[in-house]
Amino acid sequence: MTRHTRLIMQMVYWAFVLYLFIPLSLMVLMGFKDSKFIGFPIKSLTLHWYKVVIQDLELMSVFAYSFTIAISSTVLAIIIGTWAAMLLSQAKFKGKIIVFALITLPAVLPGIISAIALRIYSQTLGIEPGMTAVILGHTVHNVPFVTLVGMARLNSQPMSHVEAAQDLGADNVISFFRITLPYLTPALVGAGIFCMLTSFDDFVRSFFLGGYEPTLPVYIFSQLRTGMSPEINAISSVVLVITAVMGLAAERLMRRK
Amino acid sequence: MKNATVSLVDISKKYGSFVAVEKINLTIQPGDFVTLLGPSGCGKSTTLRILGGFETPTTGQVFLGDDDVTNIPPNRRNVNMVFQDYALFPHMTCGRNIAFGLELKGKTKAETEARVDELLEFMQLTGFKDRKPEELSGGQRQRVALARALAPDPSVLLLDEPLGALDAKLRKQVQIELKSIQKRTGKTFIFVTHDQEEALTMSDRVLVMNKGRIEQAGSPKDLYSHPESRFVAEFIGETNMLECGVKGIDGKQVVLDWFGTELRGDCRKGSPTPGQKVGAVIRPENITCYSNKPESSLAFELNIDQRIFKGSSTTFEARSSKGQSLTITLDSIRADEIGTEKMWVVLKPEYLSILLN
Ligand SMILES: Nc1ncnc2c1ncn2[C@@H]1O[C@H](COP(=O)(O)OP(=O)(O)O)[C@@H](O)[C@H]1O
Ligand SMILES: [Mg+2]
Description:
The complex is a heterodimer. By secondary structure, chain A is mainly α. Chain A is 79% helix and 0% strand. The longest helix of chain B has 18 residues, at 168-185. Classes of the chains: A mainly alpha, B alpha+beta. At the A-B interface, helix 7 and helix 8 of A face strand 6 and helix 2 of B. The structure holds adenosine-5'-diphosphate and magnesium ion (MG). Magnesium ion is lined by residues 44-45 of chain B.
C-alpha cells in the first residue's frame, strides 16, 4: 500500500467514525441542555433532565415492564435454546436439518413479518395482546441465537470430557449438569445478555403484541409524537450506557475460549 | 475392588463396511501391565474403548471376571480410563476432579476427602489440591488424571496413549513412574501406545496389533527375540531382514540360501518347504563378529561401509560380496578389535528366526 492510499483509507475510516458518533454525542449532549427545546444554541448545562427521569414514576414503571419482559424472555430462550443445541449437536435423528432450519428461521425473518404472524397466532391460541404475548414473541426471536452460540460452544467441548464423566459413573443427566452446563455457562451468559438487549430494544414485536402497557421503545415513540424535550435525551443516554456496557461484556464472554 | 481377569471373546468392530477390529481373542491376567502396540489406525483405541464400554462390539463378548459386560454402559462398568488428553474437568480443582468418581459412587464426604488426600500424596501432588488443571504442568495433569481414574478403585485401568502429550525427556521419566505406580497398586493396567520402545520398557505382556488383528502376543523379550511375522520383526526394534530361499531341512534347523551364502536358523511357526522364499531376521547385536576368519562353516566375509560410534556401542553398516547389506552393533570395546576394511561374521542359528509371512 502506498502512503497515498493509506492516507485516504484513514480519512475514510475517521469519516465513518464521525458519522457514527456525532449523532450519539449530540443526543447525549442535549440531555444536559438547560432549556425545554432540543437544538442549538446551548446556553448552559444542567442535570435537571436526569432528575426528571428519576422522578418520573410512569417512566420508571415502563422501565420495570421492559425489564421484566427482557428477563423472562431471556430465561425461556436460554432453556429452550440450550436444549435445542444439545439435541442438534449430539442426538442423531432423521430430519435434523429441518429441525435446525425451523429453529433458526426466526432469526432471519423480517421483524414486521414475524410480528404480524405472531399476533395472529397468539390470538388463535387465545393469548391476549400484553405481557405474555410479548414475552413469547421475544423468546421465539431469541431462541435461534442461544441455539447457535450453544452449538458452537458444544462443538469445542472435547468428547473426552463427557466420556470421562460417564467413565467415572455419571449418567446423562449428571454429566450434563456437572460437566457440560458449566462448560457452556460463559457462552450462555453472553448469549443471555444479547437476548436481553434485543428484547429491551425491540420495537416492532412489542408494538404488535403489546396491550395498553408500552415497553420502553414503544413509550419513547409515543412521547416523540407529542413533542420532544431533553428528557428523551436523558432517557436515551441512560439506555445507551447500560446497553453499551452489557454488550461489551457479552461479546467478551462469548469470545472466551 | 478385587482384580478380575479380563477376556475378549471373538470381538469384531465394523464401521459401515470398514473393519476396525477383527476377531480379537485375548485374556488378561489380574495385576498384569499389558500393552496394545501398533501403528496408528490399527484399532488399538477401538479395542480399548470396547473394554471401557464406549463402543459396542459388532460381534463378540467382553468379560470382566465371570460377568459378561458387553452391553453394560461405561458408568456401570468397574473399569476406568485415562484419556490421551487427560480430559480433566476444567472448571473443577484437582481435588474435585479426583473426588468426582467417589461422589458418584455414593461415598460419604469424609471417605471421599480421605481418599482424595491419600491419592494426592501417593501421586506426590500434595499442595495442588485447590489448583485448577490449567495451572498445572503436563506431567502433573497426567498424574491427576491417573489419580482420578484410580480413585474409585476400578478392577482394571485403561490408558490410551497417556504419555503422547509429554515431551521426550519427561516421557521417559513418567514411563518409569507409571510402571512403579502399577506395581505398587497391583492393578491391571491396559495401556495403548504406538511407541515400541515405550511398550518394551513398561509391559509384562505386549500385544502387537496390525490392521485390526493381534499379530503376536508375548513378553517384551519374547517378541524382540522371536518375532513370528515380518511385521512384528520390523515394528519392534532394529532388525536385519534377509530374503532367503529354503535349501532343505536338517533336523530341527532349516538350511537357507542367502544370495549364495548358506545360513541356518529355527522356524518357530509353520513348516517351510524346500524352494520356498522366506525372510530370516537377526538383530544387529546378535551377529557375531571376528577380525579374522573363524573356525565355522557358517562364517562369511563383509566389507565395512560405515562405522558409527554411539558411545557405549558402535554400529557398522557392512556389505556382503554379493552386495547385500547388514547392520551390526557391537560394544565399543569389542568394535576396536575390528579392522577398518573387512570383518568376518557368523549368524548363529539360535539368533536367526525364519518367517514365512
Ligand atoms: N467412529 C468411527 N467411525 C468410522 N471409523 C472409525 C471410527 N472410529 C475409528 N475408526 C477407524 O477405525 C480404525 C481404527 O481406529 P483406532 O482404533 O482409533 O486406531 P488406533 O488407536 O490404533 O490409532 C481407523 O482406521 C479409524 O479411522
Ligand atoms: Mg488411538
